[in-house]
């Protein structure tokens, strides 16, 4: 479910991450927090046509560096962005959760409710990131498919 925040909370978030409170940054935060799926830059561009492509790219890049959002790839290899947990920090993400790609609607979901297995690598390997993907049908698409069968 999408997290509900108001503009004051977004302003506090930007201040906490030492970022200027600009209207485009606040709009991007508001849009991303209103969704329960990850979203791509092209999708954001289509609904935020008053923010140019370069500015939007810079905002997303800055938010990712600051630990506000994290990048996840969909089944086509397109970068999508999702809101981070509060324990993410600048240049150090804790987004070790399942990323679910729906094969019907193409949405990407962050599934935080699962307990992730502990990752044990052979000697000499030092993991810096961990990503786990699954694909199939999301609840909405599963329900649509079941309705068509009945």
Automatic annotation (TrEMBL):
Family: Belongs to the Fur family.
High-level lineage: Bacteria, Pseudomonadati, Bacteroidota, Sphingobacteriia, Sphingobacteriales
GO biological process: negative regulation of DNA-templated transcription; regulation of secondary metabolite biosynthetic process
The entry's keywords: DNA-binding, Iron, Metal-binding, Repressor, Transcription, Transcription regulation, Zinc
Binding site for Fe cation: 93, 95
Pfam family, one: FUR
Source organism of the structure: Mucilaginibacter terrigena
Cofactor(s), names only, from the UniProt record: Zn(2+); Mn(2+); Fe(2+)
Residues reported to bind Zn(2+): 102, 105, 138, 141
MF (Gene Ontology): DNA-binding transcription factor activity; transcription cis-regulatory region binding; zinc ion binding
Protein's name according to its UniProt entry: Transcriptional repressor
Cofactor mode of binding and number, as noted: Binds 1 zinc ion per subunit. Binds 1 Mn(2+) or Fe(2+) ion per subunit.
